[in-house]
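User: I'm writing a tutorial on reading structure tokens. Could you give me a worked example: one chain, its sequence, then its tokens, then a sentence or two explaining what the tokens reveal?
Assistant: Sure. Here is the example chain.
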Amino acid sequence: MTAPRRRDEPYAGIGPAPQAPSALERPMRIVADVSELPTVSFGSRNIVWWGQVGFMVVEGTTLAIILASYLYLRRNFESLPPLRTPLPDLGLPTVNMVLLLLCLVPARLLDRAAKRLDRAATTLWLWVGTALMAVVTVLRYLEFRSLHAHYDLNAYASAAWAILFTHFTLLVVDVVESGTIAAIYSTGRDEPKHFTDAADDAFYTHFMVLSWVPAYIVVYWLPRWL
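And here are its predicted structure tokens:
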């Protein structure tokens, strides 16, 4: 019987091959000290932010294409809207536009609260923003009647409905997203990473509000100017 080989002896090719030391046996080597890095990051330093930017690019491009289609259809008619098609109302759409602009206030306050890691203020402005946006979403649903034209009446009506419906889906997404994050905070299930989610939600609200300004002008005011 041969004596067991010591670790410092060279392997002679007889007996079982030597095994590499396990991870616990290998000496630890510090590669980098990350103890000073922040546990929460905002904006472009957060990969979720880039995903949201990509989503906004896609949705913004879709809305821009529909607006371009609406303007292109103007060449097919002597007037816009076409003859015997009434002008869209301004009352409810304008009220909703004002309310939508007011949504920027809680969104801005939410962004500031989240970036200073203020849990109470973040929760408050999440719920305020969600409630106000829910009102805007309901009014947007009623706003379809303000067009005074069914979606299949003609190409003008189809394009106008498409503009409203596309932005309506953005409103629904924002209400669901904001409400979900607000519920997480209200039930005590929030973690530090949710501050970045709240800040990103405020960022998305800014995009959604500002993207509707040119759409509102095109749908409700442009027919009065052409």
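What the tokens reveal: The CA atoms of residues 77 and 100 lie 32 Å apart. The chain has one domain: 46-72+90-225.
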